[in-house]
C-alpha cells in the first residue's frame, strides 16, 4: 500500500476504477455499485474499501467503467454529542462526483436518526431504514471534450460588464430559442440570447448556482422548490436539470459546450458558488453525503456536537479543516481546468474565512491558498463580503485580488434617486450628495487599502436577491405572499419608492416618472467607476410583481419576458447607449482612484466636483439640501476624452451652470435621462452658461476642448 492515499474521487484504471473518499472517524466504508437488470430492476453490489491512510479510504474495483452509477455507505460510532453520525443504512453521495443522476425524494428514510412523517424525531436514535430508494446516484463520466481552439477571454475588469443571470430564467420564455432548449445550458448559448448579450455589451455572465443542488424539506412540503439553487448537493457536478438531455455525460458536455460558445463570443463565464453550507442543513436534517462521511470534519460544530451556523442554512462548512479546504480548492480548480470557467463569486464569503475562534480573518489559510494557487489566483474572484454571524459585514475588508459586491454602492444609489427624491417630492430634504459622489468615483473609502484600486468594487443597484430595477420604482413594500412565509421573508430595507401609487398604474405622469427613475439608476450604475454588474432583465424593465425574494418561484415571477412594450424597448436602447458611453470613455473606468491633484499644465485636476452654480463644491458637501452635483472626469492624464456628469436629485427643475473648467470651451450633450430614448447630440453649450435640468434627472456631457 502506498504511503499516501490517491486523489479523492474516482479514477479509471486499465482494469477498473479506483475509488477514494474521506471518512476520518469511520470503521468501514463500502462503495455501492448500481446496475439495471434485464427486467428493469436495479441491483446494488457493495464492495468494501480495503485500504485506509490518514482517514481516507480507497480501493480499486475491477470491471468498472464510464457510466457506472455508484455511491457510498459508511459504518462507525453513533454519538451525536461527539458529532459522530455514522449509519450504513444511508446511501451517501461522493463529494467529488462529477455527475449526479436523479433527485432527492423527500422521505423519513433520508434522515440518519429516527423521524416521523412530520420529519421530527429523536436525534439519539439511529434509523435503520434504507435511504437508497430515495437518493440520486453518482455517475462516472468521461472528462474528454473537444475544446478546439477555445481560450479564456481574460477580459480586464476595467472593461467588464457583469450580467448576473439564472440559467433557466434567461430563456424559458425566449421566442427565438427552440422549445427543447429553453431554460438550459444550451439555451443560454443559443445565438438568439448571445446576440442580446453582445448588443448589450456584456463581457461576463455570472451564473446563479449551477452546482448540483436539491430542495429544502420545508419547501417540498409546501409544493415549492429552491429555484435559485443555493442548496448544494455536489460541488463538482453541473446541475442536471439545466441540461436539455437526461444523460449525465451529455449534461456535462452541454455545460462545457455552453462555455465554449460563450467564449467564442468573447464572453466570460463566472460561477456563483456556495461553499459556505450544504443541502444537509443542521444535524437534525437529512444525511445525504458529508454528514454521514464525517460530520466532525466537514462542519463547524461546538463542544456538544451542535452546528455553528453563520449562514442561516443550518450548517457551515469548516474550511479550517484541511480536507474541507482541499475539497473546495479541488472543486474550483476542476471548474477552471476541466470546464474552462473564468472566475467565481463566493456566496457568503465571510463564512469561508472564519478561523478557529469563529472571527473573520483576511489572512485565513483558505484565502491565502486562493491568492497563491497558480491556477485560481489568475481567475476573477468576487466576494459577497458578509455572512449572518457575529460581525459578519466586511465590505472592503477582503484582500487583493478579490473584488467585492459593494452593498454601500447599492444603498447610496437607491437612497439618492428614490428615497431622497420621495422626500423632496413631499417637501422634505434628503441626505445630500457626498456619499453619491464617493460611490460614483469608485468607493475609495472602502477599497483604497492594499493597492486594490477601483476594480475591487463590483457596483450594483439590484441583484437576484431583492427588488428588480422596475419594482424599485413601483413598490414601497415587498409582496412575497407566494413564497409561503406570510410575507415575512425578504429584506425590509429596500430603499424603493412607488412614486405615489403602490403597484402598476395607468397614470401617465407616474409611469413617466418611474421610467425616468429607472434610467437614472441605470445611468449611475453604468457610468460609475468600478465594475458594473447588471441584474438580468433590468435592461428590459422586468418585474417580479413586487416579490423581493423569489427564491422559490420557478415560474413567470422569475422568468425573463421577451414580449416588450415600447417603453421596454426604449429602456433597452438606453442601456445599450450607456454601455457604449462607458466603453468609449476610459476615464470612467480607470484602474486607479482619482487623486484630486493637478494632472495637466492648465491646472486641471483628474476629478473635480462642482455645484449647480458651476463653482467648486468647497465647503458645501455636507448640506442635506444639496441635491445637484457636477463631476468633471479629466482624461488629460491618460490622453482620453473628458466627461462631465450632472445629477439633479430634486423633485423640481433647476438651472445648472456648466463649469468653466480649464481647457473646456463648451460641452456636447451625450445623454439626458429625461429622454425616453437616447437622442443625437445637439449644438454644444458654451462653458459658463446655464442650462435647465429636468426634475430628478441625470445628464452626461463631453467637454469640447479649445482648438
Automatic annotation (TrEMBL):
Gene source species: Terrabacter ginsenosidimutans
Biased amino acid composition, Polar residues: 483-497
Residue ranges occupied by any Glycosyl hydrolase family 13 catalytic domain in the UniProt entry: 182-582
NCBIfam families per record: glgX_debranch (TIGR02100)
Signal peptide positions (record): none
Full protein name: Glycogen debranching protein GlgX
Pfam families recorded: Alpha-amylase (PF00128), CBM_48 (PF02922)
Keywords in alphabetical order: Glycosidase, Hydrolase
Keyword Hydrolase recorded: yes
Superkingdom to which the source organism belongs: Bacteria
CDD domains registered for this protein in UniProt: AmyAc_Glg_debranch, E_set_GDE_Isoamylase_N
Gene that produces this protein: glgX_1
Family: Belongs to the glycosyl hydrolase 13 family.
InterPro entries registered for this protein in UniProt: GH, GH13_cat_dom, GlgX_Isoamylase_N_E_set, Glyco_hydro_13_N, Glyco_hydro_b, Glycogen_debranch_GlgX, Ig-like_fold, Ig_E-set
Record region (Disordered): 481-511
Amino acid at each position: 500500500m502506498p504511503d499516501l492515499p490517491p486523489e479523492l474521487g474516482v479514477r479509471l484504471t486499465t482494469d477498473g476504477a479506483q475509488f477514494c473518499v474521506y471518512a476520518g472517524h469511520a470503521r468501514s466504508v463500502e462503495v455501492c455499485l448500481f446496475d439495471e437488470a434485464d427486467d428493469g430492476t436495479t441491483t446494488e453490489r457493495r464492495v468494501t474499501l480495503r485500504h485506509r491512510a490518514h482517514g481516507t479510504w480507497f480501493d480499486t474495483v475491477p470491471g468498472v467503467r464510464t457510466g457506472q452509477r455508484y455511491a457510498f455507505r459508511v459504518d462507525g460510532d453513533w454519538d451525536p454529542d461527539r458529532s459522530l453520525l455514522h449509519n450504513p443504512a444511508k446511501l451517501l453521495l461522493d463529494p467529488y462526483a462529477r455527475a449526479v443522476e436523479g433527485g432527492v425524494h423527500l422521505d423519513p428514510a433520508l434522515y440518519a436518526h429516527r423521524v416521523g412523517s412530520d420529519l421530527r424525531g429523536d436525534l439519539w436514535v439511529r434509523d435503520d431504514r434504507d435511504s437508497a430508494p430515495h437518493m440520486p446516484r453518482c455517475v462516472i463520466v468521461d472528462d474528454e471534450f473537444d475544446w478546439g481552439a477555445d481560450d479564456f477571454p481574460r477580459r480586464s475588469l476595467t472593461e467588464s460588464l457583469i450580467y448576473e443571470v439564472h440559467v433557466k430564467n434567461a430563456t424559458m420564455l425566449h421566442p427565438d430559442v427552440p422549445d427543447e432548449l429553453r431554460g438550459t445550458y444550451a439555451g443560454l448559448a443559443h445565438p438568439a440570447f448571445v446576440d442580446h448579450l453582445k448588443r448589450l455589451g456584456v463581457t461576463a455572465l455570472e451564473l446563479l448556482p449551477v452546482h448540483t443542488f436539491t430542495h429544502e424539506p420545508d419547501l417540498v412540503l409546501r409544493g415549492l422548490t429552491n429555484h435559485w439553487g443555493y442548496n448544494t448537493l455536489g460541488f463538482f457536478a453541473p446541475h442536471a436539470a439545466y441540461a436539455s438531455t437526461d444523460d449525465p455525460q451529455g449534461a456535462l458536455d452541454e455545460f462545457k459546450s455552453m462555455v465554449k460558445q460563450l467564449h467564442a463570443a468573447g464572453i466570460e463565464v463566472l460561477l456563483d458558488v456556495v461553499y459556505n453550507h450544504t443541502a444537509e442543513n443542521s444535524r437534525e436534517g437529512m444525511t445525504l453525503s458529508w454528514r454521514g462521511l464525517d460530520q466532525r470534519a466537514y462542519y463547524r460544530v461546538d463542544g456538544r456536537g451542535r452546528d455553528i451556523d453563520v449562514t442561516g442554512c443550518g450548517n457551515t462548512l469548516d474550511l479550517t479543516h484541511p480536507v474541507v479546504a482541499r475539497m473546495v480548492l479541488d472543486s474550483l480548480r476542476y471548474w477552471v481546468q476541466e470546464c474552462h470557467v473564468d472566475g467565481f463569486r463566493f456566496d457568503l464569503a465571510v463564512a469561508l474565512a472564519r478561523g478557529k475562534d469563529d472571527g473573520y480573518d483576511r489572512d485565513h489559510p483558505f484565502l491565502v491558498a486562493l491568492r497563491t494557487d497558480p491556477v485560481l489566483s489568475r481567475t476573477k474572484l468576487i466576494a459577497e463580503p458578509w455572512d449572518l454571524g457575529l460581525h459578519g459585514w466586511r465590505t472592503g475588508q477582503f484582500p487583493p485580488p478579490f473584488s467585492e459586491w459593494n452593498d454601500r454602492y447599492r444603498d447610496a444609489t437607491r437612497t439618492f434617486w428614490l428615497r431622497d427624491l420621495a422626500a423632496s417630492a413631499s417637501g422634505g430634504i434628503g441626505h445630500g450628495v457626498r456619499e453619491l459622489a464617493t460611490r460614483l468615483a469608485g468607493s475609495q473609502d472602502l477599497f483604497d487599502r492594499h493597492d486594490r484600486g477601483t476594480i475591487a468594487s463590483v457596483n450594483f443597484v439590484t441583484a437576484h436577491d431583492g427588488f428588480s430595477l422596475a419594482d424599485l420604482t413601483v413598490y414601497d413594500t415587498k409582496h412575497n405572499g407566494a413564497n409561503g412565509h406570510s410575507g415575512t421573508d425578504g429584506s425590509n430595507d429596500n430603499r424603493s419608492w412607488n412614486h405615489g401609487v403602490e403597484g402598476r398604474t395607468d397614470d401617465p405622469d407616474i409611469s413617466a416618472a418611474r421610467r425616468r427613475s429607472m434610467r437614472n439608476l441605470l445611468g449611475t450604475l453604468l457610468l460609475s467607476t468600478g465594475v458594473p454588474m447588471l441584474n438580468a432583465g433590468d435592461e428590459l424593465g422586468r418585474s417580479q410583481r413586487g416579490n423581493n425574494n423569489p427564491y422559490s418561484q420557478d415560474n413567470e415571477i422569475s422568468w425573463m419576458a421577451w414580449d416588450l412594450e415600447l417603453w421596454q424597448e426604449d429602456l433597452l436602447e438606453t442601456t445599450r447607449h450607456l454601455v457604449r458611453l462607458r466603453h468609449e470613455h476610459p476615464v470612467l473606468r480607470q484602474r486607479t482612484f482619482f487623486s484630486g491633484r493637478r494632472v495637466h499644465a492648465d491646472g486641471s485636476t483628474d476629478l473635480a466636483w462642482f455645484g449647480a452654480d458651476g463653482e467648486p463644491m468647497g465647503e458645501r458637501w455636507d448640506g442635506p439640501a444639496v441635491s445637484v452635483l457636477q463631476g468633471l472626469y479629466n482624461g488629460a492624464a491618460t490622453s482620453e476624452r473628458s466627461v462631465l456628469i450632472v445629477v439633479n436629485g430634486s423633485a423640481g427643475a433647476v438651472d445648472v451652470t456648466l463649469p468653466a473648467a480649464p481647457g473646456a470651451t463648451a460641452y456636447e450633450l451625450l445623454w439626458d435621462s429625461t429622454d425616453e430614448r437616447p437622442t443625437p447630440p445637439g449644438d454644444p453649450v458654451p462653458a459658463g452658461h446655464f442650462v435647465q435640468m429636468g426634475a430628478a434627472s441625470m445628464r452626461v456631457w463631453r467637454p469640447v476642448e479649445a482648438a
